[in-house]
Structures are given as C-alpha cells and as structure tokens.
Design goal:
By secondary structure, the protein is α/β, with parallel strands linked by helices. Helix content is about 35%, strand content about 15%. The protein binds fructose -6-phosphate (F6R).
Length: about 260
Amino acid sequence: MEVIIKPNPEEVSREAAGLFRRQLRRKPDSVLGLATGSTPVELYRKLVAMVRCGEVSFAHATCFNLDEYAGLPADHPRSYACFMREHLFSHIRVAQWFIPDGLAKDVATHCEEYEYRIRDCGGIDLQLLGIGSDGHIGFNEPGSSLASRTRIKTLTARTVADNARFFDSAEAVPRHVITMGVGTIMEARHCLVLATGESKAAAVAAMVEGPVTASVPASALQMHPVCTLVVDEAAAKLLQRTEYYRWVYDNKPSWQRP
Ligand code: F6R
C-alpha cells in the first residue's frame, strides 16, 4: 500500500484529483467507483472545475457508487443519489452512472444485478473510498466478511452517530444501507482511500499497520495489489512508519507521479 501524507485536506483532495485526471486521460472510458460523505466533497469540486476548463472529461466514463441508504428514494435530499447529483453529476457530463436503489423491492436480486453490471462494464478501474472512524469501507462495518459482495448491511450505532450531522437527528438516520462488499471493492484495479482529520487517525493506523482482520474491514486493503492511501497530517498522527512513507513519496520516479 502506498501511503501519501499531505499537510492538509486541501492537498489531499488535490493529490486525489490528480490521480483521477491521470486515470481518465489514460483511459477516457474508465469505470470509476465513487464514495459519498464529507471527505470527497472538495475532490468533486476540483473535478468539476477540471471538467469545466477542459482538463479532464467524464463523458465516456461509467461510474458506480459504493452505497445508498435503504428506504430513501433517489430524490430524498439525504440520499446518496441526491448527494452525488449535488456535488458532481449535475455539473458534468458522464456516460453512465449507477447507484444502488434504496427502494429496491427485491434487495437480493438488485444487489446481484449491481454486481453483474459492474462486471459487464469491465470491472472498476479506480475505486474511491473514505474510511469510517470504526474502520469501515463502503458500509462494511466491523465484522463484515472480507469476501462479502453487494448486500444490505446494518449500520453500527457509531456510524449512525457519525452520520447524524447530515440529518436532523440521529433517529432520522436510516439503520440499513445497500453497500458493495469488501470482496467487490477488492476487485477494483486501483483503490484510492482518502482520510482527513484526527477522528480518522485510529482507523487509519489500524488499516495500514494493524493486522488484517474483519474487525477493521479497511485492513483488507493490505492485501490489495494497488492501493493508494492519501491522508492529512491529522489522520496520519497514529501511524508508526511515517518517515518511510514520506521517503518513498519523495523518491517516487517521475513516471509514477500523476
Ligand atoms: C460513503 C462510504 C463511507 C464513507 C465513510 C467516511 O459512500 O462508503 O464508507 O466514506 O463513512 O465518511 P466521511 O467522509 O463523511 O467521514
């Protein structure tokens, strides 16, 4: 896993935007996996700006979102479908975009179809991920099978509390989500994890330097052949090998840079 430590969230987003630009320039019809939450908001703002000035285009790209709240319609203001339209898709042209349907009647079949669609599009080239303070990726909460596929999951009380800021109260946060599984995420060709702020420091340390365990689903990424983690100083605070991560980054060959 490559660990890139940046001074602040702004620089984290800039690095991530560079990786998206590189991916889309190399392969304009890339299949991109996208995340919601606070962490990628600035990245999406940068991508919209890049599209507007012609630096990059999503016009041939296909996007798949990681997850959606079960029970929320796509036009609900707190749905992730709405989030994605607000922050990205109402501002740019994209060939295709998919997100799990929070109102799917037959959830199991819907999840199978979502997986099928990802495979049918050729698999995900670049998967963007945030990390929960409890170590989740997508909404694969601690204890999730590291081989799991897209399915319904119950959020932990901690994630409900973390996400209450987007709702009027914690009671209003749905308890269930439809999420890609850890196994689904692990099939992406490149995983890009972003983490900012001190509240993520323990989860980041467990993900990178702890044992691979279903108790920290993000730790499965230690087994991924091409995973990049971009963190700010605050989120890197509990990492032990920061000197080496910085050394690797400073000595990175130019052809490996975005
Ligand atoms: C969102 C998702 C989650 C978030 C994570 C961090 O689609 O899959 O795993 O990435 O909960 O959320 P923020 O960025 O709000 O701290």
